[in-house]
Amino acid sequence: MKVLMLLLSLFSVALCAAEPARTPQRLKSLSLEQLGNLEVTTVSKQPEEVWNTPAAIYVITQDDIRRSGATSIPELLRMIPGVQVSRMQSDNWAVGVRGFASQFSKGLLVLIDGRSVYTPLFEGVYWNVQDTLLSDIDRIEVIRGPGGTMWGANAVNGVINIITKRPRDTQGLLASVNSGDINRFIGGVREGFHPSPNLYARIYAKGSVREAEANPGGDPYDQWHQSRGGFRAQWDPDGRDRFNLQGDIYQGKSGAQTAVGQFLPVPAQLVIDDMQSVSGGNLMLRWDRALAHGSNFYLQAYFDRTNRQTIQFGETRNTFDVDFLGRIANLPRQNITAGLGLRLSPSFIIQNQPTVDFPPHRTTDYIYSASLRDSIDLVPDRLDLILGSKFEDNNFSGFEFQPSARLLWKPRNHMTFWGAVTRAVRAPGRLDQDLRLTGYAPVEPVPGLPFFVQIQGNPKFKSEILIAYTSGYRQLLRHNLYVDIAAFHNQYDDLEGFGAVSFSEPTTPYPYLQLNAAYANAIKGTTDGLEIAPDWKPFHWWALRGSFSHLHLDLRPKKGFSDTGTVASDEGSSPHRMASLQSMFTLPDGIEFDQDYRFVSALPAQNVPSYQTMDAHLGWTIGKHFTMAANGRNLLQPRHREFTGDNGNAVGIRRNLYASLAWRP
Predict the structure, then answer these.
(1) Class for domain 2-663, per CATH?
(2) Is 0.85 surpassed by the pTM of this model?
(3) Of 81, 123, 402, 459, whose CB is crowded by the most CB atoms within 10 A?
(4) First CA to last CA across the chain, in angstroms?
(5) How many whole angstroms separate alpha carbon 463 and alpha carbon 169?
């Protein structure tokens, strides 16, 4: 396979040297200068060029998405330095930014068009239900480092903002289908229409069926399928106002293997293959208004409903969110933004097993927030100071504040230095405070008494705290060479671990011995790291993009605690080094050939050795509308492990080959 990839690469170089590329203009990548001039919104909630962004930000463009051959949002995130994406099994990923990867990505805020997909139940993200037509995504903006000053609690280690295209940019019919040995079917259709001069809209539908990975014993428990649909409409009645209305619905089944403690008929620890039912939908309305002298405001409201039913529990959650942000841009050498927010999230838990519970079963979570940010031109067009803070009150931890100070220096065009000091918090959720999870241990410390272990939430669990010191440098060294470097020193306190254990002797449904282990703010420590991302286009038909990240974690139990197990798990579940190299050839006659190599160092806590693998994409655009592609993922080995899956399974992530067809307007 390695020899084949090398020969194909050499063939591509020779072919490009012989004849200039004639790929349609709409398929060409942006120049490196244009990439730096891209306007991003995730850092300040207002459009600003990458050059003017005092944060470690990376933008995945639609061209990157299309040429990657990826079929899911987590797969797209692999190309970002400092972002760990580990596939746990067919339908789950562990995603982390600068460490602390987990199935639910705690401390990482994920948004789709500004709508948070964070769940307070497991304090993170259900990655297997975050989806849309990938061809409708305009870009994905990723902040590495805290973003709580603008986005609030839980934007601790990073912010991922998935931004879809405007309806006016998705007119006409799009249809695509993808099929292979693991991706059995991924298909989508979208129709964009233009009912009036100032009104554009689109509707879409998507479905997928995926086979299991290489599970122990050949048990295909992680098969999954899902279907979804949605719409987006944009109305621009005049030059000042813009209204967006959009919504989505989805349903599916996601496979899992679950260990369940049992009291009756006999004490036991059962291993059960479970098909979890998931469904939900959302509706969002946003009003943007432009004011005089560059000032503006927006008002956004959304409703989001999620439903998940498993063999252990069921949860139905409704979220109502309102967000207002205004900018005053006509002050001398200042730019002020201020915002208010409200989120109410009632939920209902159904207890399906006596050994798993989240009491009380009916709750309403809330967040009230206010934010203030001031960008000050110390030296016009050269040196900016940005000060701000988010202020919140929530039902889990009460009042929180998240200030930051950032400095941006542009000594000349296309060169930026920046530095920041930021405080961010991860607020507790129901897992931290309310969980009751009981498992059977097949030993009897006291003869005649069955032995159970219960993990308990702690109602006094408080927010985890980060003080982050970050800095960076980006420059267009030549018209075809760009480099982005970021470094950080993070100080964590009150991280989640286990406190002192205790024993009890319940008598229902029979006498037994129980060990109780409660969550506590038991760990502190630091992380240090460096991320380098060069981008080189030696020829107009060939682009090279690389990344390297180094991460060092130094965690320890706080005074009065002795939880070295969680420390070892946190330190051993994040790679100390990651590297990638992407090569993208734009060949004659609408042919593209792209390769993506990546290396990930070992994860001792997950029993995962270091690995290297490669993806490839070969596409051919026929005429203006029709595209064929052959894609391969994990090509360097038949299977490899990336992260421990459900029930502690060492799942092998298989080599995946698939073809795709697409009709584009």
Answers:
(1) mainly beta
(2) yes
(3) 402
(4) 35
(5) 42
